Amino acid sequence: MNDSVDKLVIFLAKRDGIDKLVKTFQYVSKLVHWRAEEAARPDLARRAKNWEVASGLSRKAFRTGRFLTGLNALRRSPGATPAFRLLGVLANAGEMVYFFFDHFLWLSRIGALDAALARRMSFVSAFGESFGYVFFIAMDFIMLKEGLKAERQLRKGKEKGGKNDDEVEGRVAKIRADRVMRLMAVAANVADLVIAVADIEPNPFCNHPVSLGISGLVSAWAGWYRNWPS
Predict the structure, then answer these.
(1) Which DSSP state fits 63?
(2) Which has the higher per-residue pLDDT, 75 or 111?
(3) Nearest residue to 37 via CA among 22, 24, 52, 23
(4) Whole-number pLDDT of residue 77
(5) Mean pLDDT of the 3-31 span
(6) Where are its TM segments located (predicted)?
(7) pLDDT at position 79, please?
(8) What is the pLDDT of residues 121-164, one digit of tens each?
């Protein structure tokens, strides 16, 4: 019990930990709002909508300056090959645009800037977000493929008796742990891509409250899993 409490404290001390918790509030309240409207309960629907809006705005405020993370990643542009580095540059550039223009979206929604800017800023921010996610997903799939290849090679080496069994199993365990984290990243990025597309090109599927709500929760809980202390 004490260990779980300690991990929760560490998780909530992180910027991403708080963001995933508030994101959970945001998309749970979206689903509650939809259900309350379907059940003709206007008072509950109004309260849920207020909770959703407050959660969304607080997340934007809390992410102030977050675009600098993407700028720093662009400066470092890590990668084993030139092609992978290029994917990293494109992914982080999209994320930087997303977080940068999200500042103006937040300011326009709280009335500090012209409210008419909100729609335009929302489009630019969502476009940058979706652009970045496409390349982040591609990078994760490449690394998943490389991980599977490395695991097969380790297994073959073990079968031939050329390597220590404990060493092989330890390296395989690390590859599998990385695979789980990358699958969580893919799930989160695909879910966030659905949300971004709903802003860029509204359509019945992506803009349905259930699609948005489930996508938001998948993203939040995948991020929760990735940021939870080991």
Answers:
(1) T
(2) 111
(3) 52
(4) 63
(5) 92
(6) 121-144
(7) 61
(8) 999 999 999 999 999 999 999 999 999 999 998 888 776 665 66
Query: What is the pLDDT, as a whole number, of residue 65?
Result: 86
The pTM of the full predicted model, rounded to 2 decimals, is 0.90
Residue 73 tokens read as 């990643």
Largest pairwise CA distance in the chain: 69
For residue 14, give its domain range. Answer: 2-227
Which uninterrupted H or E stretch holds 99? helix 82-109
Query: What sign results for the dihedral spanned by CA atoms 206, 223, 63, 21?
Result: positive
Q: 132 and 125 in contact (C-beta within 8 Å)?
A: no
Q: Helix/strand/coil (H, E, C) string of 23-55?
A: HHHHHHHHHHHHHHHHCCCHHHHHHHHHHHHHH
Cα 73 to Cα 90: distance, rounded to the nearest angstrom: 11
Q: HEC profile for 181-222?
A: HHHHHHHHHHHHHHHHHHHHCCCCCCCCHHHHHHHHHHHHHH
Average pLDDT, the chain: 91
Reading the block at residue 156, the tokens are 């073959």
- Please say whether the beta carbons of 70 and 99 come within 8 A: yes
- Domain count of the chain? 1
Going by C-alpha positions, the residue among 2, 20, 19 that lies closest to residue 225 is: 20
Q: How far apart (Å, rounded) are the C-alpha atoms in residues 27 and 192?
A: 12
pLDDT for position 133: 96
Compute the distance between CA of residue 196 and CA of residue 134 in angstroms, rounded to an integer. Answer: 11
